[in-house]
């Protein structure tokens, strides 16, 4: 295995709730009130739709707001990776990734581990350069048992809700998260900060046609069938954990450019600096995790990002 290369779940396509458009010479993210499934092929007109997009959309009168899913792993932290991230907008390379306790940062050509106080305190993060960032991998359809679709978000509402749901579903299913038939659902709400305009975030719920008892029974049966067939879920989770840990950053440069475009929509602002050696940090409470910080901040400020 190549050291320094994060081994991540195979990606078949992307899940988005918006797209990047050109306006007044700028490329800006445009939010939507529905999901879109895209392939990994991008043209001048944007990302090409995935064939499953039309199939699922036809079953919902054209508005794709529910996606039937399963998860690849039992460990919620393998399905959803949430962290604070800072990208260099000139090179589209990740500069610093942290969890509110520690961060991995490129300094003078080498990787260093430093305290991570979070973007509210870190001097390097001032100006909105560092943001919460999460990636959710899900299984859609049955054509590829290990191929996933990825949903990326910088929204507090989505990150907090997804983290909570994954933890709860793991608990009530007796650690059989990977066997639960669930669905991604787009939800909307209005806040004072959004001036009454709906903002949308992503949730994980039971499938519309199944109640909790049927869902748990189906998961139990699937777990038994997999065990009888020799499927080793524990080994799969362990292999994924090892793969993620093999690299300093999950994103590769070929993916980072598109991510930076959504992270920093205003391309006319000054780029994030790569000169970080002089940054001073305040030490944070080691027990104050990223999930706790996201919850604290979301209670103070409602964000319009999704």
TrEMBL record:
Pfam families: Gp3-like. One of its GO terms (molecular function) is hydrolase activity. Residues 266-277 have a biased composition (Polar residues). Residues 264-306 are annotated as: Disordered. Keywords: Hydrolase. It comes from the Bacteria. InterPro entries: Gp3-like. This is Hydrolase or metal-binding protein. The lineage of its organism: Bacteria, Pseudomonadati, Pseudomonadota, Gammaproteobacteria, Oceanospirillales.
